[in-house]
Specification:
The protein contains eleven helices and seven strands. It is of the alpha+beta class. The strands form two sheets. It has a five-stranded mixed β-sheet. Strands 6-7 form a two-stranded antiparallel sheet. About 30% of the residues are buried. The structure holds iron/sulfur cluster (2 copies) and FE2/S2 (inorganic) cluster. One iron/sulfur cluster binds next to helix 5 and helix 7. The site of one iron/sulfur cluster has 13 residues, from helix 9 and helix 10.
């Protein structure tokens, strides 16, 4: 839905400093604008191309030259802060890491993440994620654990992958359990299965988070579609290395008859 097409001439004239290295006809962007309760829809902007530009460059150009009240969230422009998440041509991606020349020719759509409540334009309210985060018990070593910790390299490598998470929440956005089924209250989501896995696999951690992950975290709702893994900008193997091992641990504990007998007889978890 177009609510207002900005005059093409405002968006086509290369501006001093913005057009250096520009080449070819203007790029057409359809960018979502609106706030809850008011008219919302895509607005068309034409942006002069610059060699090597990313989608965030185009949004900044629009803010500077055409539409100063277009809202977006960003901080690092280096794919490290996780702030500039959006849906580009329908795919959850970081605006600062998406090069224009990697996209197919034609109009480029930029919309806010669908799985989170809209605040304004490209900015969504991701605070629910921090509430989920608070429900997961933090790293807890044994009280008498000598420090500094001595940890084997192999254990360190395994949890290091999970520590690369930049909390962009693109995986939460793409996951159908949150995006289409709205099970925010019953499902932690892939980012937090990554966090649970990083703690559960930490050799010095002593807290058991598996039962809570199975019940209040809704681990069983995940049907391993791997969509979360496909969009992760840090290339974390969310399903293979975090979710599936957690599911295996839950299955071992709950459905392995020998473990069930051992639990009954010995009271072990
Ligand atoms: S693999 Fe599981 S957590 Fe990841 S997107 Fe699919 S259902 Fe969601
Ligand atoms: S796991 Fe990947 S996609 Fe999910 S929040 Fe972390 S960095 Fe983003
Ligand atoms: S601006 Fe920091 S990740 Fe894009």
């Amino acid at each position: 839905m177009a609510i207002a097409e900005r005059p093409a001439e405002r968006g086509t004239a290369p501006q001093p400093g913005a057009g250096s290295g520009s080449d070819g006809p203007p790029l057409e962007f359809h960018v979502f604008k609106g706030i809850p309760g008011e008219e919302q829809g895509d607005v068309t902007y034409r942006v002069p191309p610059v060699t090597g530009m990313v989608v965030l460059d185009a949004i900044h150009w629009i803010q500077k030259h055409v539409d100063t009240d277009l809202a977006c969230r960003w901080n690092c422009k280096a794919a490290k802060c996780g702030s500039c998440s959006a849906e580009i041509n329908g795919m959850p991606r970081l605006m600062c890491k998406t090069r224009i020349d990697d996209l197919p020719e034609g109009p480029i759509t930029v919309r806010p993440m669908k799985a989170f409540p809209l605040i304004k334009d490209l900015v969504t309210d991701v605070s629910h994620n921090y509430e989920v985060n608070r429900r997961i018990p933090q790293f807890t070593p044994a009280a008498d654990e000598p420090t500094p910790f001595v940890i084997k390299d192999i254990d360190l490598e395994r949890i290091y992958e999970f520590r690369k998470c930049i909390e962009c929440f693109l995986c939460q956005d793409v996951c159908h359990v949150l995006r289409s089924h709205d099970l925010q209250e019953q499902f932690y989501g892939p980012r937090f299965f990554v966090r649970v896995a990083s703690l559960e696999m930490h050799p010095k951690d002593t807290v058991d988070r598996l039962e809570a992950t199975r019940t209040e975290g809704g681990l069983g709702y995940c049907n391993i579609t791997k969509c979360c893994t496909e969009v992760c900008p840090e290339h974390i193997h969310i399903t293979d290395n975090a979710i599936i091992p957690l599911k295996e641990r839950v299955a071992d504990r709950h459905w392995d008859p020998l473990r069930a007998v051992s639990r009954l007889l010995l009271g072990r978890r």
